[in-house]
Amino acid sequence: MQANEITVAVGMSGGVDSSVAAALLVEQGYQVIGIMLRLWSEDGAEADNKCCTPDAMAVARRVAARLKIPFYVIDSKVEFRAIVVEHFLNGYSQGNTPNPCLVCNQQIRWGTMLREAQNLGADYLATGHYARIIQIERGSVRLFKGIDPTKDQSYVLSRLNQTQLQKTILPLGDLTKTAVREIASRFKFASANRPDSQDLCFLGNQPLQPFIARYRPGTALPGKICDINGTVLGEHEGLAFYTIGQRKGIRIAGAEPLYVLRKDFTNNVLIVGTQSQLGNIRFTANQVVWTTGEVPDHSFQSMVKIRYRAPLVPGSVEILSNDEFQVKLQAPARDITPGQAAVLYNDDEVIGSGIIQTVDIEGE
Asked: Which of 2-6, 28-32, 212-216, 248-252 holds the top average pLDDT?
């Protein structure tokens, strides 16, 4: 099919990336639709939501008008609250550190938004993510890193399956952020020099701790802070408010800085130690998505990313089932955290991902 026979819905946020993605698709001759999701925020805090403030919506409308494309706003507050926010709150209350963007991409953007885009007649969904999709034989596609290593977002797309990826176009994967801003300037978009948002959209400008305590008051249960030998060093404010590898917020003076090593939920104890005591090499992940659409039938070597901003590290992957794998890293990593995604790479290609469930503590 020719580009002018294909309709692409672009998820627009008012930011520079999604605006340029839409502009490039228009230039390439596609029939383009702009679509924006209205997500949940606490009552009275709608203006602080990082994804869909009234101002961002107005900017997206102006971009769509400049590009002469239709623009639709889809109310997704109920789904977002029930799926993404509840997952986030439940994860923290269970002692994990979830990444809500992974759930949002998998179930809201490539769930609700893709479905609504198809209802509007779209053949594909496009976003401003910095990653690449490459088609191989028989219609299958593969997910690769974006070429800009400082902006690569393949990690947050690693929960998408083949069906979702085959309906996706990522116009910015072969561009650097600098090039995207230059294109935005050429189109005279107001967002050309706007800084990127780094915050969780539904938190707005508020701190994490009071938000969790407000919706899960049982998490604010004080308890002991101990070292690895069981010596009591102080008191924590609730295990949900700490994450593995955290240094700030422990508020215990010592000869060396202390870090969160692990959380003992059975006894409500926060276990801390020095940097030399921080780090593990083995963990198990489940809820696996094999991005390639193929379940490996044997163990293999892979590069592993355990958090969005973490470096890639080599490790061996043992397949435990279609929905579970175990990773042994070649060297200890300091922040292997239940609730985060472990994403497996073969060079620049995403193979699959799973949600970290358990971490094996060396010596126990």
From this structure: 28-32
